[in-house]
Amino acid sequence: MDILLSICAFILAILGIAGCIVPVLPGTILSYGGLLCSYFTSYSQMGAAAIWIWLAVCIAVSVADYFLPAWMTKRFGGSRAGSIGATIGIFVGFFAGPVGIILGPFVGAVIGELVNDRSDFAKALVVGFGSFLSFFVGTGIKLIVAVGILVHIVADTWPALCNWLTGLF
């Protein structure tokens, strides 16, 4: 059972890293599932505190990933309408596939800004760019967390993996 859990831990952690880049997969959640698989092996040295800390980090990153476009829209001079548009763009983009997830906040922020002030198209594009930039910032944060979880899984599994490989050869 330990071997199966270890294999699942690595597969989920690698899928989690891929999920940070591919918008359809929940990257940090998959990585956390891998961490749980590693935790439930008989040779795990991981403490319960690490599990709770990683859970809190994953939840914080997931929540921040949804609110980041609205915040970045504000930082780039957007109005409340632009922030609302970016948030709506996230949800509408989710149903439009991977391209929609990437471009949804941008289009939503631009439309929101144009609803607020039709005369300033250049400002609407700048605000949309801020929302688009938030996608890359969010992806970077998720990647850092997912790679951190993978490193934690490797560190926890490494002694057992070495023993298994030496017994095999």
What does this entry look like structurally?
The mean pLDDT is 86. The protein has 169 residues and is mainly alpha-helical. It is elongated, with a radius of gyration of 20 Å. The chain has helices spanning 2-21, 27-39, 48-75, 80-95, 98-116, 121-168. Helices cover 85% and strands 0% of the residues. The two termini are 21 Å apart. It is built from six helices and no strands. It has one domain. Helix 2 packs parallel to helix 6 (121-168) and helix 3 (48-75) packs antiparallel against helix 6 (121-168).
Distance between the termini: 21 Å
pLDDT averaged residue by residue? 86
Q: How many helices does DSSP assign?
A: 6
Using only C-alpha atoms, the radius of gyration works out to 20 Å
The gross shape turns out to be elongated
Number of strands: 0
Low-confidence stretches: none
How much of the polypeptide forms β-strand, as a percent range? under 5%
* H-E string: HHHHHH
The domain tally reads: 1
Content-based structural category: mainly alpha
Task: Give a quick account of the main beta sheet: strands, pairing sense, barrel closure.
Answer: none
Percentage of residues in helical conformation = over 70%
